[in-house]
Automatic annotation (TrEMBL):
Entry EC number(s): 2.5.1.18
Protein name: glutathione transferase
Molecular function (Gene Ontology), one example: glutathione binding
Alphabetical list of Gene3D superfamilies matching this protein: 1.20.1050.10, Glutaredoxin
Listed InterPro entries: Glutathione-S-Trfase_C-like (IPR010987), Glutathione-S-Trfase_C_sf (IPR036282), Glutathione_S-Trfase (IPR040079), Glutathione_S-Trfase_N (IPR004045), GST_C (IPR004046), Thioredoxin-like_sf (IPR036249)
Enzyme class: transferase
Key words, A-Z: Transferase
Reactions catalysed: RX + glutathione = an S-substituted glutathione + a halide anion + H(+)
Keyword presence, DNA-binding: no
Length: 213
């Protein structure tokens, strides 16, 4: 049975999973969840994903939600050992990978997703962005990028000199920054960040699935 991904092609978290599927050419079927009909809040959907959020996967009867957990599962099941996640036998490389993955959720996602909410998603239901919040989020993210620039001045990627999921996790919300006219990743103001961003965002997997939100 082909793996099914239950989500929305344009949604950030569905894109995070699709990128990994494309990295390893895993055959899959995208089962579209129609958010306008609140399909993600239906009893059938909630029975699998109790928070009513996309995406989840069904891999031969094994169901899993949370895009980053799905990504880890897919890499370990379908990838070569050491590709995108370090070989689990290497404790220190694994720990550095987990550190970098945690950096993404703690120091990037919270601000970049907040900006997407204010500047993009709110418009879809006719709400106005909270401009004071936008300023706070941008200022905090600028400070975080100082640290990113320092990290990426010593290694090619966030967890060392090999690309990992920790890098790829940034793609969905990172690309939405550009869509909002926030040039933090591309301007060269943080040169190591720009070098890194150009590298990861030009991967064939991302180019294939990136459709505007
Ligand atoms: N941490 C979850 C977040 C999932 C999530 O927030 N999905 C959004 C779309 S990107 C969603 O379904 N939003 C609708 C809602 O929360 O009601 C993941 O990474 O899978």
């Amino acid at each position: 049975m082909v793996l099914t991904l239950h989500g929305v092609a344009t949604s950030t978290c569905t894109k995070r999973v699709r990128t990994v599927l494309e990295e390893f050419n895993v055959p899959y079927e995208l089962v579209h969840i129609d958010a306008s009909k609140r399909e993600h809040k239906s009893p059938a959907f909630l029975a699998v994903q109790p928070f009513g959020q996309v995406p989840y996967i069904n891999d031969d009867g094994f169901k899993l939600y949370e895009s980053r957990a799905i990504a880890r599962y897919l890499v370990l099941k379908y990838g070569d050992v050491g590709a995108l996640i370090p070989d689990p036998a290497d404790l220190q490389k694994t720990a550095l990978f987990e550190q970098a993955a945690s950096v993404e959720t703690s120091n990037f996602d919270v601000y970049a997703s907040g900006l997407a909410m204010e500047n993009i998603f709110k418009k879809t239901w006719g709400a106005e962005p909270d401009l004071a919040l936008v300023t706070r989020l941008k200022t905090t993210l600028e400070g975080k990028l100082d640290a990113y620039n320092a990290i990426l001045g010593t290694t090619k990627y966030l967890a060392g000199d090999e690309v990992t999921l920790a890098d790829l996790f940034h793609l969905p919300y990172g690309s939405l920054l550009e869509q909002q006219g926030i040039d933090f990743l591309v301007s060269g103001r943080w040169p190591n960040v720009t070098r890194w961003w150009k590298d990861i965002s030009s991967r064939a997997s991302w180019k294939k699935i990136d459709v505007p939100a």
